[in-house]
Specification:
It contains 7 helices and 7 strands, in the order αβββααβαααβαββ. It is of the alpha/beta class. It is elongated.
């Protein structure tokens, strides 16, 4: 008996719905993505295989590195409301009055490195000018004028005043070539305020291959 041959037809798939879904997902990711903020004090962190992630909120980062002024320390806060509240407390302690507009502008600055006396000028700058090399000399952290210690204290107080559920987390971000005594100084400053748990920021290093 002769076999009946089935006619072959090219199959076609309507991709219109798939393209719509792809564009919707792309639009969603673009609108919800957060642009990486430029770092006013770039540092090359030491390599490590530890992959523990730092919290996205409730984090204070102390960055230690070198710029035109020598060794500098920059202070960063993740939460905008804590930044604004800490600025008010710090200004009141130093006799500097900040306007509501200045507080709102400061809350957009994630990391900074100037004395309190220079904050008004820093706030008035554009983001591009603010992050130029040499513009921010660092926060005073010596025995005669230790503003860094006060920022740590007032950030914690602001966190409490705002009724946050947990205490702030602290992280030290130091350059890989930074000498240990400078990092130790920051550690001692945290421990003086009973902050004994803090993170050291490192870059990811590939694990060695086993033969």
């Amino acid at each position: 008996m002769a076999k009946i041959k089935m006619s072959k037809k090219a199959a076609s798939i309507d991709m219109t719905a798939m393209c719509d879904v792809a564009f919707l997902l792309l639009t969603f990711f673009i609108l919800t993505a957060t642009a990486k903020q430029p770092e006013p004090l770039p540092v090359q962190t030491p390599a490590s295989t530890v992959q523990t992630k730092l919290p996205e909120t409730g984090l204070v980062t102390l960055t230690v590195g070198k710029n035109n002024s020598g060794v500098s320390v920059f202070f960063g806060m993740k939460d905008r409301d804590i930044r604004g509240a800490a600025l008010e407390l710090m200004g009141a302690s130093r006799g500097v009055k900040f306007t509501e507009k200045e507080i709102a502008q400061f809350s957009l600055i994630e990391e900074f490195g100037v004395p309190v006396s220079g904050l008004k000028q820093l706030i008035s700058m554009s983001s591009t000018d603010r992050n130029k090399n040499g513009v921010q000399p660092g926060i005073p952290a010596d025995s005669l004028n230790n503003e860094l210690k006060d920022w740590i204290m007032y950030a914690r107080k602001a966190n409490i005043d705002l009724g946050k559920d947990k205490e702030l987390d602290f992280a030290i971000k130091g350059d890989a070539k930074q000498q240990y005594p400078q990092i130790k100084k920051i550690m001692d400053m945290l421990q003086d305020q009973k902050i004994n748990n803090f993170s050291l920021v490192t870059g990811l290093r590939a694990k060695p291959k086993l033969d």
